[in-house]
Design goal:
Blueprint (H helix, E strand, L loop, with lengths): L1 E7 L2 E7 L22 E4 L20 E4 L4 E6 L6 E2 L4 E7 L2 E6 L4 E6 L6 E2 L4 E5 L1
Keywords: Biotin
Protein name: Biotin/lipoyl attachment domain-containing protein
InterPro entries: Biotin_BS, Biotin_Carboxyl_Carrier/Decarb, Biotin_lipoyl, Single_hybrid_motif
Length: about 130
């Protein structure tokens, strides 16, 4: 048995593989092994050390932050900086998993800054809009 580390979608797995040696007397029929018979054990991938950069908080321009509830793509921005919004007004449309999600203003206020544009990709927690 030989052990190998295999990375699939960013996850590292340790797998054991049996080495089959050919004999000179002829061919050997080998029963195939199904995936469920393989032993895959997730292992910890080495942590990458990236230098931390101090960036000013986007909330510095506004007191209320609207962040992305899920990863997706911005389909449309319905407001402009300086617009007054009421609680429940649609601020932008976020597409996630082929569904359009309306991101609404959590309270009444004025849009201070917009941190995304149409077509941009966002991750969960990314700041979309700040408002006062």
């Amino acid at each position: 048995m030989k052990k190998f580390k295999v990375t699939v979608n960013g996850k590292v797995y340790e797998v054991e593989v049996e080495e089959i040696k050919e004999n000179n007397g002829g061919s050997k029929v080998i029963k195939p092994t199904t995936v469920s018979q393989l032993k895959a054990v997730p292992t910890q991938a080495p942590a990458e050390s990236a230098p931390k950069v101090d960036t000013p908080s986007p909330a510095a321009k506004g007191s209320k932050v609207i962040s992305a509830p899920m990863p997706g793509t911005i389909l449309d921005v319905k407001v402009k900086e300086g617009d007054r919004v009421k609680r429940g007004d649609v601020v932008l449309i976020l597409e996630a998993m082929k569904m359009e999600n309306e991101i609404m203003a959590p309270e009444e206020g004025v849009i201070v800054s917009i941190h995304v544009s149409k077509g941009s990709s966002v991750n969960t927690g990314d700041v979309l809009v700040t408002m006062d």
